[in-house]
Amino acid sequence: MKWKMTGLFLVPLLLMTVAFTAINLIAAFYFLSGAEDPEERISAPFFSYTNYTLDFARFITFVEGKPSITKEGQAELIQRKAWIQILDRNGNEAYSLHRPKSAPVRYTPGELVHHYKYSGSIEDSTLFVSWISKGSEKWTYIIGYPVSHIAKYMIDFSPLRIMNFWKEGILTVLGLTFLMVLTIGYFFGRKLTKPLVEIINGIKLLAQGRYIVKYQSEGLYKDVYQSLNQLADALQTSAVQRARMEKMRDEWVTNLSHDIKTPLASIQGYGEVLADPEYDITVDERRKYAEIIVDKTRYMESLLDDLRLTYQLKNHLLPLNKKEGNIVETLREIIIDLLNDPQYESHKVEFLPKCEQVFLVFDHGFLTRAFTNLIYNAVIHNSQDTRVQIQVTERETAVEIIVEDNGRGIEKEEVEKLFTRYYRGTNTNERHQGSGLGMAIAKQIIEAHQGTIEVKSQVGEGTRICILFPRKAKEPPGR
C-alpha cells in the first residue's frame, strides 16, 4: 500500500514536470519570437523589434535628396515611444526625430557598434540599426526604444560546442531533471504517505475491535491523530461499559431468576400439598399454606412491577400527576410508617426539617416511593445502632433534602453502580429480597421531577445522599 500511494503521488508530479517544461518552452518562444505579418506586429503578442526596425524603411522618404519620415511613420514612433536618427555614408546625422540630447550627431563605426550592442548606453534606450538605399547612396538609420520595452544582453557561445552538446546535453539535462524530481518526490511522498498509511492501519485496528491506537498529535495530520486517539478512547470506554453492563445484566437476571424461583418453589410445594387428596390437613394448616402462597405471589408481582416501572420511567411513558404539596409532611409520613414497622421500630431515625412547610409541585405517590426506597436502604443496609438523619432545607432557588447516616459506608466502586438498574448492593447484614431496581427507580423518579441526586460515602464513616429540587426564586416584597 505504501508503494502504491507513493506511486500515485509521483505520477502526477512527473506529469507536472513535463507540463512545466513545455510551458517554459512555449513561454520562451512567446517572448523571443515575432509576428511575420508587418500589419499585425503592433497588436500581435509575438512582436519582434528587429523585424519592426527592418520594415520601418517603408516610412522613410526622400525630398530633394534629403531623408525624412512620413506622418504615418512619425505616429508609429510616438506610439512606440521611440526616436530615430538617419545617418549619411560618413556617419553624420542627416535627419532626426525625438532624438535624446545625449545622442551624438556623428557616429564612428565603432561607436555605432557599441551603442547597438549595449542597452542603455544612450539615455536608457535600446538601439536597433538598419539601412536603406536611395540610388547609389546608402543611408543608415538608428531607432531607439525604451529599455523598459525592449532590452538586449549579449552572450558569447560556441556553435560547434552547441552542436556537439545538443543530443548528449539535452538528454543529460532532462535526465537530471527527472532524477531530481523523482528523488525529491520520493522523499516528500514518503513523508506525506507514511502518516496516511498509519492512519489507515489505525482505522483497521479500530474496525477489528483493537482499541490500542495511540498517536503523537503532531505534524500535518495533527487533528486527524487527535480525532483517532479520541475515537479509540471513546470506543474503549464504550466497550468497558458494555462489558460491565453485560456482567451486571447477567447478575441481575441470575438474582431475579433465583428470587422468582424461590417463591415459585414454595408456591409449587404448598400447592401440591393442598392438591394432594391423600394428604389430610387441618383448617389452620390450609389457611397457613394459602397465606404463604399469596405472600409469595405478591412478592413476585412486586418484582415484575418494579421491572415494568423502571422501563416506563426510562422511556418517559409514565405520566406524573403533579400537584402542589408539603414535602415536609410527605417525608414525615414515610418515617412514621417506617418506625411503626416492628422490624425497624428500634432504629434511630431522626427527621430534622428547617421549617414545617416547604411546598413543591410533585406526584405524591411516586415521590413517596422514591424517598421510601432511599430511607429504607439507609436503614436495612446498616446496623441497628446506626443513626439516620433526614434534613429538609428551603433555599431561594431549590429545596434540598439530605438522607445521611453514620453507618458502614459504601465502597467507591459500589457508589458508581448504586443507581444502575441491574445492580444490587451486597453491603447489608440481612438477605435483601429486592430486585435491584429500588435505587434506580428512586433516581428516575427524582429526575422526572427535574431533580438531581448525588451520593457521597466513605467506608467506616457513613453515606450522604443529597437531593435538590429546583424552584422559581421568590419575588421580592412589593412586586
From TrEMBL:
What the entry lists under InterPro entries is as follows: BphY/WalK/GraS-like (IPR050351), HATPase_C_sf (IPR036890), HATPase_dom (IPR003594), His_kinase_dom (IPR005467), HisK_dim/P_dom (IPR003661), HisK_dim/P_sf (IPR036097), Sig_transdc_His_kin-like_C (IPR004358)
Q: Which Gene3D superfamilies did the record assign?
A: 1.10.287.130, 6.10.340.10, Histidine kinase-like ATPase, C-terminal domain
Domain Histidine kinase, chain residue ranges per copy: 255-473
GO CC annotation: plasma membrane
Q: SMART domains, from UniProt?
A: HATPase_c (SM00387), HisKA (SM00388)
Give UniProt keywords alphabetically.
Answer: ATP-binding, Kinase, Membrane, Nucleotide-binding, Phosphoprotein, Transferase, Transmembrane, Transmembrane helix, Two-component regulatory system
The protein's location, in the record's own words, is: Cell membrane
Q: What is this protein called?
A: histidine kinase
The species is: Aneurinibacillus migulanus
